[in-house]
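Annotated sample (chain length 305).
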Amino acid sequence: MTEPWWDGEGVDGDGLGGPEGVVGRLDAVDYLAGDGIGTAAYLALRMSRPLLVEGEPGVGKTALAQALADAFAVPLFRLQCYEGLDASQALYDWDFPRQMLHLRAAGVAGETDAATLEAGLYDRRYLIARPVLQAIEAAPAVLLVDEVDRADDEFDAFLLEVLSDFAVTVPELGRIGAKVPPLVVLTSNRTRELHDALKRRCLYHWLDHPDHAHEVAIVRRRLPEVGARLADDVVRAVGRLRAADLVKQPGVSETLDWACALLVLGVRELDPDSAARTLGAVLKHREDLESVRATGLDRLLAAGA
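Output written by the structure step:
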């Protein structure tokens, strides 16, 4: 186990105050975490293990990484995954235009020795660090590998190698290792299954939609101008939308968007008219809009559970 990079003594001298201390730090940066995610983040920090967070889109997976960086006042480096992503886009690349300028300048200066030219060509100043290398060099930092399930299967093997020792070997420069391992948060929407070897390397947490009271608290914290009645109305309606047969269930981010849209319009209590005018803030598919309108907004907003 590496030396901790967080401050303070905390419980048992761990500098964190246990899972409750991590929850408290997240709360201080307006991320209302439950005990489960607080414990998972605490263990990832104490054990220097990557944290794989899966869940439906919009439940706060990406926001968790940003909140952890803010809570511990360290930089966040984000690697957005997509199909075709390769190691050079995650690790490093060489600045080819600047290398060519170097060669031209060396030629003008009369430099002809091949070894000297090559040594100057692969100088560290011409290396462009991508998110993984940036996080390794920053020490300490949070590295977010966002939507890892969107990358190809081969990328899992690459990640497994890097996350094993938090080091990168640049053939022309040698090994670059982290003085302090970054806190790595991987997120997945489960569009494909990740390799078992990668999962074994990580701690795991499934992040679900919050319950009613928790989501109301999130709305009130993030949008303090929203009254208790409107927050309750919006969260209850969103909960019913999630239970409906929709193409895309709304996440917490859509709950916040809807509450914000209503706030901008000066609405204090959700009614069929205001819901109809702002439904595009919470539903983003035409089929879902038509389905909800056909069912009737009165039913969506009916009082009671």
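Annotation: Residues 8-13 have pLDDT under 50 and may be disordered.
Annotation: Residues 228-243 form the longest helix (16 residues).
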